[in-house]
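Good day; I would like, with your permission, to put a structural problem before you. A protein sequence and the structure tokens that stand for its backbone fold form the material at issue. I would ask you to consider whether the tokens describe a fold that such a sequence might reasonably adopt. I set the record out below, with my sincere thanks for your time.
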Amino acid sequence: KECPMSRSKPNPKMRRARRRFTPEFKADVVRLCRAGGESIADVARRLDLTETAVRAWVKQAEVDDVGGTPDALTTKEREELVRLRRELKRVTEERDILKKATAFFAKESS
């Protein structure tokens, strides 16, 4: 007997898999939006992108190009922040391992 759920229609509210886009593609989309012929929503619809993503790319491009808002990070600063956070995590893990090893060997020698 077939499961009744197997024939159900896909839920339109379900999220689709997260897609990754190259910086070049994002720059092209931003150029389309800035050209002025279409709204951000129209560009997003035409390229099958979310309007939220396109707006974020346009906003980030403004920060990168002009400086944008004073608190906003440029793309290079964001990349450096990610790199530094990864490095901090690695160094913290190394420190924790060394702490445990020191405690273990101190216990062994006493």
In short: The mean pLDDT is 87.
